[in-house]
Amino acid sequence: MEKEKPIGVFDSGIGGLTVVKRIASYLPQEDIVYFGDTARVPYGSKSNDTIIDYGLQDAKFLMHKNIKALVVACNTVSSIALDQLKSRFDIPIIGMIDPGARMASLHSKNKKIGVIGTRSTISNQAYSKKIKRNDPSLYVFERACPLFVPLAEEGWTKHKATYEIAEEYLLEFGKIGIDTLVLGCTHYPILAEVIQYVVGKDVKLIDSGIAAAESVKEELERYNLLTNKFAIGNQSFFVSDIPMKFKELAELFLGRPISEVQKIDVESLTG
Amino acid sequence: MEKEKPIGVFDSGIGGLTVVKRIASYLPQEDIVYFGDTARVPYGSKSNDTIIDYGLQDAKFLMHKNIKALVVACNTVSSIALDQLKSRFDIPIIGMIDPGARMASLHSKNKKIGVIGTRSTISNQAYSKKIKRNDPSLYVFERACPLFVPLAEEGWTKHKATYEIAEEYLLEFGKIGIDTLVLGCTHYPILAEVIQYVVGKDVKLIDSGIAAAESVKEELERYNLLTNKFAIGNQSFFVSDIPMKFKELAELFLGRPISEVQKIDVESLTG
């Protein structure tokens, strides 16, 4: 039965596990199949063409898992390839940009919103275009923070250097006086404490994973696809590489240990 | 004629351009074909199996360019896949580990050597095994510095945060009292000034690219493969992705602008 199929979630690596965590807390009964393209991570510094190719391959792998909905838990792919994915696959597809942009628009009172993300997400102006479409009177300032992903993956969530790098990246947001900051990369919630400290406690941080999890719930309701089960859903995890420190990092991102993970060859899915 | 064929050089990304620069200064008449696997960079945090697969594909691409010798300008691949490459291809193959280890052994007077590299290079103990095979009385201390590659690629070569991160990574080397430090990753020469400052001016830094360039010269002499030309050699550049900031970074690593670069599909070379 359609309703009892799993939700598919993919990301360039393990960052999307922060989104799985959010979806599971909103929709604990749903089964989830996750794919992380750890053999080719990161996507955020690569070209649009390459990101589109990789995103299509990732989605294709999950389609073979017979999913009822697809969550693109990667801001970079969401910002570039969502239309291609929607035109290719005939199930509800939820990206990270629309939900995060909408939540930011709703939260901002002084109409000054900041967005941080990978080089690719920011240079595509994915969030600012969407936020301004919601409300053209909003002012949006965006900045790429390429070192945040490696800092999160190094586990330096409270390190002095992390604070200093955050101060450099986020300085301009303070000058502009934003009241809302979109964490436009699934790795960034890991550094939320540092980011909150640097921008000040009055700035509302928007976790695009939480926004996306809300959208997943809405979409499943809309298409009458919510599971009828009462038991806690199953989660299964696939990756294209099992690198060093994988279990340790996956636990940091997912918030609990991963017992089993399967490695697959994503390049065999080309085309 | 065999002698007039180009030297092939590959790396996971653009870091290997620092090695091209060194080879060109030792052997200015030689033609060089470079391949950087920028679509799948970085390798240093991935598993050995994945690194071997990628290294074989990269080498295969260059073999199709009819090269007379192959330089594995990537410490990670050199530390894991050099034997597989040597058994597969019948031309001189020069990695980064042997030359760097030999140069370090020759330089150290107090017999305490430090090595820094990617997580993969360090966990495979590539340098320490080789250095101790040269001289078992040498003491080798190794440490992975995963943030150095993204810092180099962000161009933060003199940033306060870079100094602080270097201080954290390199603290132990000072306590041990090394007199020689191997820069076991082709990105690290970009950060040489910071590294030298932090470890102190009495510590000799070994640039594995310089060591490898010397070895390339020796190998070509040994097999009578040095070009007879007098003109400056041609250099051609291939990559699997042309990401943002590519030209800017390539210039930083190569030391001069790259006029032309061709993008190829490395995944089509599987097998």
Q: Give Rg of chain A in angstroms.
A: 18 Å
Instruction: Give me the CATH fold name of the largest domain in chain A.
Output: Rossmann fold
- Ranges of chain A with pLDDT <50 over ≥5 residues? none
The CATH class of the largest domain in chain A is identified as Alpha Beta
In round numbers, the mean pLDDT of chain A is 95
The secondary-structure class of chain A comes to alpha/beta
Q: What is the helix tally of chain A?
A: 11
What share of the residues of chain A does DSSP label as strand, in percent?
15-25%
Oligomer: homodimer
- Structural domains of chain A: how many: 2
| DSSP E strands of chain A, number | 10
Largest interface: A-B, 34 and 34 residues
What separation lies between the terminal Cα atoms of chain A? 29 Å
| SSE sequence of chain A, one letter per element | EHEHEHEHEHHEHHEHEHEHE
* Share in helix of chain A: 40-55%
**Biggest sheet overview of chain A:** 6 strands, parallel
* Order of strands in the sheet with most strands of chain A: 4-3-1-2-9-10
Describe the protein's architecture and organization.
The structure is a homodimer of 271-residue chains. By secondary structure, the first copy, chain A, is of the alpha/beta class. Chain A has two domains: 154 residues, Rossmann fold; 112 residues, Rossmann fold (3-Layer(aba) Sandwich), CATH 3.40.50. Helices cover 45% and strands 16% of the residues of chain A. In chain A, the strands form two sheets. A six-stranded parallel β-sheet of chain A has the order 4-3-1-2-9-10, sandwiched between helices. The first copy, chain A, has a four-stranded parallel β-sheet with strand order 6-5-7-8, with helices on both faces. The longest helix of chain A has 17 residues. The radius of gyration of chain A is 18 Å and the shape is globular. The model of chain A has no long low-confidence stretch (mean pLDDT 95). Chains A and B meet through helix 5, helix 7 and helix 8 of A and helix 5, helix 7 and helix 8 of B.
